[in-house]
Amino acid sequence: MSNKPLNKVLYVEDEPDIQTVALMALETIGEFTVKACSSGQEAVEAAPAFEPELVILDVMMPGMDGPATMEALRKLPVTADVPMIFMTAKVQSHEVERYRAMGAADVIAKPFDPITLADQVRAIWEQQQTKPGDAA
Rounded CA gap, 86 and 134, in Å? Predict the structure, then answer.
């Protein structure tokens, strides 16, 4: 098992203002390479060429919502085992548990703090890298 640093993030958000703020936080503060998509369909089409190490998904989007996008990405070999994070305002405990039961690595609450967003993402990544039961 390697503790390699996170570099490539696929970020899916349909709201342009939120996408802009998160992109600045992830690229400028986090120094990640980010591919931003405005829809689930766009993310599914972009994932094979981009080969993300982690995916951040808005939950509520027109067309393919976050859970449907995660399901579609899980069917692609390149993203089948990639950790996925939901970013949503729906963060009551039963909702968070539902997202985790679907296979989400974690949930980041909206509105998020742009200053700490990259650290939150990195912490979730590191937690995924050291999960017990992973192949060594």
Answer: 22
What does the chain come to in residues?
A: 136
Per-run averaged pLDDT (10 residues), the chain, 136 residues:
84 97 97 98 98 97 96 97 96 94 96 97 94 53
CATH T-level topology, domain 8-129? Rossmann fold (3.40.50)
The neighbouring-strand residues paired with 73 are none
The answer to whether 55 and 83 are in contact (CB under 8 A) is yes
**Alpha-helical runs (H) found in the chain:** 16-24, 40-50, 66-74, 93-101, 114-129
Break the chain into its structural domains and give their ranges.
Answer: 8-129
One-letter-per-residue 3-state SS of 61-89: CCCCCHHHHHHHHHCCCCCCCCCEEEEEC
**pTM, full prediction:** 0.93
